[in-house]
Write a structure and sequence with these properties.
single chain, 485 residues, mainly alpha, 6% strand
């Protein structure tokens, strides 16, 4: 009987720099690559009324799995696709092929680790091992200069403890051929409609304003990396662009492929380091590396604190902080109907594209948690549903920071929305792009449109409270604070 290993693809949808899959191919005579779609990923959140995984992320996920299947087929194998409960399906397949073990990537968030535990329990009675491989971060967990239980509380301390002293491992080459376990039928790739997305053509349209035109998958992710760094050399302006407002090429967009493991952070690191050596090293190239380390910090934070990341009390376990469960305020925020143009433009971009800039995320999340006082977990869940680049560690870790319940809390994380608007959208072009009802308002008035006189409203063809909402909080304190600086 040939030695067989079932490889369970999770959020590591790539063949390059995938230690677990490379090891499976190396150790086994035959490998069975499997991906399981779980219907619960697409469930509606009962209190909030939207799906855990919305249509933009679902589409990107299906594209990524399809791309992985094509890559495996080119290696002489295939991807066995199933829909259902991962642990049960994997245990049944492993027993059916008489697998010696199941190999998979190691995850750290609560739901994913619960699935690992469920699978381990099902495999034990049938004497099949499960081996998990750390493939998701820039720095390997075993290379950290401290135990995860002693993880520094602040990013700065983490960065200073790791970056100068810890080497980044070289990416692992992808297998040239894959010997597939024969005789196991696969299934058709599920469609969006199969997960209950109705009127897909109407619900998902590539808007002329969209900044999310890229397809999911390793092939497109690697192409984007090469294009961004080597063809267009956008890497050299990353520092300024990351805090700007979007154009098609404005951000690297690497985060979307990183989230599903279509791109390895070590491959990005390798290419940036090569660019620095061959062409130029500047603040922008260093910022990309720093952002990869931020991503690591959030992942190790999730490993360290577990389920606390997802609770309103946060990592800090602050049970005394009051939060409003005001559905009306939340829905006004989510729909981009707050009457604050910069907030509304960012939220409408998210709703239309599945993307929002780093600057936008910081601003709208702080507005919800600190200006409105609405429970931050609702906002984190909304981002989880809509963001194409959602990953649990970065998303929920960032919201912990915003809500002052992280392991590195600071009092009063409010943000001056007016200041952000005039600094990063001085001409009002971004706001007008997403709020066409304000197209005639001049730049010097658009970020304080709520102060327009009746005559101004008539002149600029906007009616507050009708064609554009009245503000849901008093926004003039931001402009006052700016004047008093």
């Amino acid at each position: 009987m040939p030695k067989r290993i079932l490889y369970w693809f999770r959020n590591d949808l790539r063949l390059h720099d995938n230690e677990g899959f490379a090891r499976a191919v190396e150790m086994a005579d035959e490998v069975l690559p499997v991906y399981v779609f779980e219907p619960r990923w697409f469930d509606e959140l009962p209190e909030l009324g939207f799906r855990r995984t919305g249509i933009y992320r679902a589409k990107f996920m299906i594209e990524a799995v399809a791309d992985l299947r094509r890559s495996l087929q080119a290696k002489g194998a295939d991807l066995i696709i199933r829909v259902g409960h991962s642990a049960k399906i994997l245990a049944q397949l492993a027993e059916e092929i008489d697998a010696e073990a199941i190999y998979a990537s190691k995850e750290v968030a609560e739901e994913e680790t619960d699935t690992e535990s469920d699978l381990s329990k099902l495999l034990k009675p049938i004497n099949i091992d499960i081996d998990l491989f750390w493939v998701s971060t820039l720095y390997h967990v075993r290379d950290l200069p401290f135990w995860v239980s002693r993880l520094p509380k602040s990013f700065t301390e983490f960065h200073n403890s790791v970056e100068p002293y810890t080497a980044v491992r070289k990416p692992i080459a992808e297998p040239q051929t894959v010997r597939l376990v024969p005789g196991i039928p696969t299934q058709e790739l599920p469609s969006l409609a199969s997960f209950g997305f109705s009127d897909v053509d109407e619900a998902y349209q590539i808007n002329e304003n969209t900044t999310s035109r890229y397809a999911g998958g390793e092939t497109t992710g690697v192409q984007r990396l090469h294009q961004y760094i080597w063809e267009n050399e956008l890497v050299k302006t990353y520092e300024d662009a990351r805090n700007g407002l979007p154009s098609d090429d404005y951000p690297s967009k690497f985060s979307a492929w990183l989230a599903l493991g279509c791109l390895s952070p070590r491959l990005i690191y390798q290419e940036v380091m090569r660019y620095q050596a061959d062409r130029a090293k500047n603040d922008s190239t260093e910022r990309i590396l720093s952002d990869l380390i931020w991503r690591d910090f959030f992942r190790f934070t999730a490993l360290r604190y577990g389920s606390r990341l997802f609770k309103p009390s946060g990592i800090q376990q602050n049970l005394n902080k009051p939060w409003l469960r005001d559905k009306t305020l939340f829905e006004q925020w989510a729909e981009g109907k707050t009457g604050i143009p910069f907030i509304d433009a960012n939220m409408r971009e998210l709703n239309a594209t599945g993307f929002m800039s780093n600057r936008g995320r910081q601003t709208v999340s702080r507005f919800l948690a600190n200006d409105l006082g609405v429970i931050w977990t609702w906002g984190a869940s909304y981002f989880e549903s809509l963001l194409v680049d959602y990953d649990p560690c970065t998303n929920w870790g960032s919201w912990n920071y915003v809500a002052d319940v992280s392991n590195d809390p600071h009092e009063n994380r409010t943000i001056n929305v007016y200041d952000q608007a005039v600094r990063f959208d001085e001409a009002g072009e971004y706001v007008k792009r997403w709020l066409p009802e304000l197209a005639a308002v001049p730049a010097e008035k658009i970020h304080s449109v709520y102060n327009l006189s009746v005559a101004d409203q008539a002149q600029y063809r906007v009616t507050l409270g009708d064609t554009y909402p009245l503000p849901i909080i008093n926004p003039n304190r931001w402009a006052t604070a700016e004047k008093n600086r």
